[in-house]
Amino acid sequence: MPADTVQNEQHDKAWEKAERKFSHKTASEYYDPCQDFADRSLKCMKRNGFDREMCGDYFQAYRDCKKNWLNQKKAASPQSK
């Protein structure tokens, strides 16, 4: 059996294992719905010479989003029921 074939088979087996994990993950396990707010706050910082006072609204929006998201995750977790 050529080395390429063996390597491809190993790759396929590794992908099958990873694919099962990703296809059965919870909705937010690999996704942060607040990432847009984080990106906006960083852009604001760059735009305003890293003056935190100029970007307070962006930081507050991120904190509010993160708090709501974590509360939703906690309420949906099987341990809290």
From TrEMBL:
Keyword Cytoplasm annotated: no
Q: Chief location of this protein?
A: mitochondrion
- GO BP annotations, alphabetical order: mitochondrial respiratory chain complex assembly
Listed Gene3D superfamilies = CytochromE C oxidase copper chaperone
Subcellular localization(s) per the UniProt record:
Mitochondrion intermembrane space
Signal peptide start and end residues: none
Nucleotide-binding is among the record's keywords = no
Gene Ontology cellular-component annotations: mitochondrial intermembrane space
Assigned keywords, A-Z: Disulfide bond, Mitochondrion
Sum up the protein's function in the record's words. Required for the assembly of cytochrome c oxidase.
Give the protein's recorded name. Answer: CHCH domain-containing protein
> What organism is this sequence from?
Penicillium cataractarum
